[in-house]
Design brief:
The complex is a heterodimer of chains A (401) and B (135). The N and C termini of chain A lie far apart (63 Å). Chain A has two domains: 273 residues, no CATH class; 105 residues, no CATH class. Chain A is α+β, with helices and mostly antiparallel strands. Chain A contains seven helices and 24 strands. The longest helix of chain A has 17 residues. In chain A, strands 3, 4, 7, 10, 15, 16, 17, 18 and 19 form a nine-stranded antiparallel beta sheet that branches. In chain A, strands 22-21-11-14-24-23 form a six-stranded mixed beta sheet. Chain A has a four-stranded antiparallel beta sheet with strand order 6-5-8-9. Chain A is globular and about 70 Å long. By secondary structure, chain B is an alpha+beta fold. Chain B has two domains: 74 residues, Alpha-Beta Plaits; 59 residues, Alpha-Beta Plaits. Chain B is built from three helices and eight strands. Chain B has a four-stranded antiparallel beta sheet with strand order 2-3-1-4. In chain B, strands 5-8 form a two-stranded antiparallel sheet. Chain B has a two-stranded antiparallel ribbon with strand order 6-7. In chain B, a hairpin with a 5-residue loop joins strand 2 and strand 3. In chain B, helix 1 packs antiparallel against helix 2. The longest helix of chain B has 13 residues. Chain B is elongated. The mean pLDDT of chain B is 88. Classes of the chains: A alpha+beta (401), B alpha+beta (135). Chains A and B meet through strand 3, strand 18, strand 24 and helix 7 of A and loops of B.
């Protein structure tokens, strides 16, 4: 029908027809798949939610005399960073927390500050306190370094999130008698609430369920700037059960994404405190889907009523690795504010911001329409259903001496 | 008939005085205690809803103040910082009085501060610490 090259020519000429993943639903309802596929060149998707396997690596530049932070220890605003690299390279993870934060010591623990917050402050241009100690070598004699750093002075500051953009997720409930504190939020006892975390009909991988267009090298909106899909994310699982429309009904594919932190904004990268659980990073991502044929448009027009998630008990089943679904619900039902589980009406709560997902899909659409964003051909495909790739549990093998 | 929610601050010396009891007996006001706590400094904090005739309410407030208590209107206590809020929606099912809801069209969060009882559950739960207490 059309190629990415042709779409890019149209973008350069300012003639591209780009619509958001929400707008395309209405378009298909009005004009049908065939006509819509003829008209639409690109569908833009978006999502904004907590994505824990996120982080940023930097090169802070050499001090005088030189110090080898690599193999030593280093903190940014008291949050430990990983230093198993070269002299002045370090990687800060989103969920890292200060060693001795009194706010985390009383149950359930507040987790008010950690890696995600440092990343947000760094992107916002704030000065960050760096403290490092090293064992010293002949070529790197210095043993201590205490300095303020700022993102504009770093040689490199790269956001590298090796698991983002989950293709669907669970609906978390609590069947026990006490509140449980999880990464899906605080869950009230006796199914007091049902929390979900997905942008549903705006979510990138839910709109390209078989990874036909999204692949390694796909250019994306990441944290307010430009990024790229670098690999499949950890726990990528294309082999999950899918509905007839191809959309997985449980957590499936994931993306590893990368981009220049210096070009991003603290509007789309937010430190997250999950009560009783830990710290994370809220990441805004938008992926363009080139409409190369009718099948791709059909998938891109899937709506909330047609996307389902499984209801999982997070008080016992999830922690005990018991794979059990208490039922399923569609994102349309979840967004209505309440769902019925085993005959009971349960109010729902979202961790993912649909209004921000919408804003991202519209922002990406405007970048493309203005000619500021060209699409890329993926250089390699993500492992798909036929690859047999799946996410396996750990097979514990006790260590015997 | 009016219904107002107020926050009372009891200094140490008045923590065990039956002030609220007098509101019913002398001023014919119905009350509903929404929150009561004694801080480690032994000062008292009470969030109370008073219902009654307007004149009685005014007399009741005058009496409370004359006893030496600090009285504040509740509706200004919990505020939503729109800059920090990402409109995720985790707070919505947590609020016991449905003072937080999702606008069905914009999918943004609306905070009905008149419904708020200052239980502070949203403050603990908000992942971006966008709900703030203002005293």
């Amino acid at each position: 029908m059309r190629t990415i090259k042709e779409i890019n020519e149209k973008i350069k000429k300012g003639q591209v027809v780009a619509v958001t993943a929400e707008e395309v639903i209405e378009l298909v309802e009005k004009k049908g798949i065939k006509k819509a596929a003829q008209e639409v060149d690109v569908v833009t998707t978006g999502t904004f939610g907590p994505m824990c396997s996120s982080g940023a690596y930097f090169n802070i530049g050499h001090s005088k005399p030189r110090i080898k932070i690599g193999g030593g220890s280093c903190t940014l605003n008291d949050v430990p960073v990983y230093t198993g690299f070269a002299a002045v390279d370090a990687y800060l993870g989103a969920t890292a927390i200060p060693d001795d934060d009194p706010r985390n010591k009383v149950f359930p623990g507040e987790f008010k500050y950690g890696g995600g917050h440092v990343i947000q402050e760094l992107v916002a241009g704030k000065d960050i306190r760096l403290e490092a100690s090293a064992y010293g070598t002949d070529c790197y004699p210095r043993k201590k370094l205490e300095t303020y750093i700022n993102i504009k002075d770093l040689n490199e500051a790269v956001l590298f999130n090796f698991r983002n953009c989950y293709q669907n997720y669970n609906i978390a409930v609590n069947l026990s008698d006490k509140t449980v504190y999880t990464y899906m939020g605080s869950l009230k006892p006796q199914m007091g609430n049902a929390n979900y975390c997905s942008a549903g009909q705006l979510s990138p991988l839910l709109k390209d369920p078989y990874y036909r267009t999204i692949g390694i090298g796909t250019k994306i909106f990441l944290g307010g700037g430009v990024g790229y899909v670098s690999w499949q994310g950890t726990q990528h699982n294309p082999s999950v059960k899918r509905k007839d429309n191809g959309v997985p009904q449980a957590p499936a594919g994931t993306l590893a994404v990368i981009g220049d932190l210096k070009s991003m904004s603290d509007k789309w990268l937010k430190g997250i405190s999950m009560l009783g659980y830990g710290v994370s990073l809220g990441v805004g991502i938008g992926v363009p889907i080139p409409i190369l044929n009718e099948e791709i448009l059909k998938s891109a027009a899937v709506k909330d009523e047609e996307i389902f998630a499984q209801i999982v008990d997070y008080s016992q089943d999830y922690p005990q690795m018991v794979s059990k679904s208490l039922g399923e619900a569609s994102y349309a039902q979840l967004k209505s504010g309440k769902i019925i589980i085993q005959g009971k009406e349960v109010p729902t709560g979202s961790l993912s911001s649909y209004s921000k997902a919408r804003e991202i899909s519209e922002e990406l659409k405007s970048w493309i329409a203005k000619g500021d964003f060209l699409l890329t051909e993926p250089v390699a495909k993500l492992p798909g259903v036929e690859s047999g790739y799946s996410c396996k549990p750990l097979k514990e093998r006790p260590i015997r001496y | 008939m009016i219904s107002k929610r107020i926050v009372l601050h009891f200094p140490k010396r008045l923590v065990d005085e039956p002030i609220v009891y007098n509101l019913i007996k002398e001023y014919d006001l119905k009350f509903n205690i929404l929150k009561a706590s004694i801080t480690p400094e032994e000062e008292g904090l009470m969030v109370i809803e008073l219902v009654g005739k307007s004149e009685n309410y005014d007399k009741g407030i005058k009496y409370i103040k004359s006893c030496g208590l600090k009285v504040e209107s509740l509706s200004h206590d919990i505020r939503r910082n729109e800059k920090k809020c990402t409109d995720c929606g985790v707070c919505v099912p947590i609020c016991p009085v449905a003072a937080l809801e999702v606008d069905p069209k914009t999918r943004k969060i609306i905070f009905h501060d008149k419904k708020c009882i200052a239980c502070e559950l949203c403050i603990k739960i908000c992942p971006t610490q966008a709900m703030e207490v203002h005293f």
